[in-house]
Amino acid sequence: MYSLPDLQNQFSKQKINKAKKFSIREFEETEKNRFVCFVDEEAESYDVSLVINSKSEITEYSCECESRDFCLHVLAMGIFMSENKTGKAVPRRGPRKKISEIELAMDDLNSEELKTWLLEFFKKNKDAEMQFMLSFGQKKKDFSEAEISELIKNAIASVAGRRKSLTAPEVKKIVDLLTKALEPVEDYLMQNPDKKESVKRFLWLSEEISLYTRKILFSGTRMDTFQKKLRARFTANLNQTKDFDLWKEIAAENWYLFLRSKEAMTFDFYYFIGELYHFGNSDQKMYIAGLVRDEIKMWMKIGFDLRISMKQDLLGIIAENGFFAELQSYFPIEKYHNSYNLQVIREIVKIDLKKAEKACKMVIESNMDERLNLPYCEILEEIYETEGSPADSAYLKRKRFWETLSLEDYIFIAENDTDTEEFKKFRNRVLAFLKNSFSNYRETAELYFGILDYEKNYKKMLDVIDINTPTYVINLYAEKLYLTNKNKFLMAVRSRSEWVGTEEEENVLADFLASKYDAGQLEDSFGKKYYGFGSDRFSKKVLSKAGLSN
SWIM-type domain: from which residue to which, for each copy (predicted)? Predict the structure, then answer.
């Protein structure tokens, strides 16, 4: 993972110098800690995105050059961010600007010559023609749907033409043109005294943009971001309506279209009513929440149920305004919908800890992927800090054992878990996992033998010693294994065809054998020549410790 503050120390000077030659344009933060920009490399331009975490570490990145590695364009953006934390281009001092040849040539042209040249130029450059019209064309104060549609169509067509697939720089051009083209339309909608008409026209505008963009293939999120910002500005302005009764009429009319209509709705409309709530003040939020609350109470009577994604959105509104307790039966736990379930359980925690505990356990037991259980275990941990028994803690430690693989946790579980059958399954699973991991992870052998030591099961220890058992683990329990069955212990040690360990570990074991067995026994066991990896070396070491010749 690359760190922004230390980025230039993680690459060669050659790469750093090359990346610094690229130009950065249109740098912006589209979401919290998600940044985008254009990186210009000579005549080529690339759409680059980068995500950082709270430690300024780069967690995600992408580039239109489609390189799978951390390419030079991403590196250029990262260097720009590390050197310029504000995201604004650092002005560079340079020589005083001189009059260019183009300016000199234009001074020599008359208006007719310039007009003729521009008309010919615009015939081949529709996006430039669009920019010219937006800058110098006649300004309107009122717009019909047909006129708005024409603005959108012309802005997109000036760049896309008849093509169905666009590059990121072309999408950027379209967004710039739409922003400028729709600016007077926005002003008209926001200043129109007929707020209801403005809402209808805005919803039509949003869907019209979506209609055109759905016909074109392109990657990136610029168009979505453009529409999101457009929607945010409009709803924020709408929520500033001074006539609260008028605002309530508008809110009720549009929210009831969602809550009561049997017709399918567009995403643009669904996003609009959502942001009408989220950009509202406390009174506006409470009013919309009241509409939702009353409708849910009716749904509960007639048995109507929403799909989970929409129910989850309404849950946030209900919970924020204090209506969850009376409506919680409408929000039951649903299998395989973890983000929704977590939201429900966090609300249940506020009113009934026992019920929240039961819900957490139900989800944990139904999850096939144990990695999904972590947030539920964290909720249980919070609950048990308030009111929890040793058995509760044992259950939680059992569910989180794979995070710690701690002998201390295992012993606590063994001594406090009240579910005998579940603990038996847990024990067998743990031992099987650990035994199969000896060859790759030495520490699992130590835990495995530690569990058997806690159980005083030294006979099982003798049975499982093989070439994958680390020498230092055998040393930990050598005395107990010897006392359990000294002949079997000697045989288990001798039967290891390979020895992998430090010289110090082998010396400790050799000293132990020499101190416990007579020379004849050691001669019989280690006197033959063995060819396993390290086996002959260890045999000679034991015989030498016992005072026998090699």
Answer: 46-82
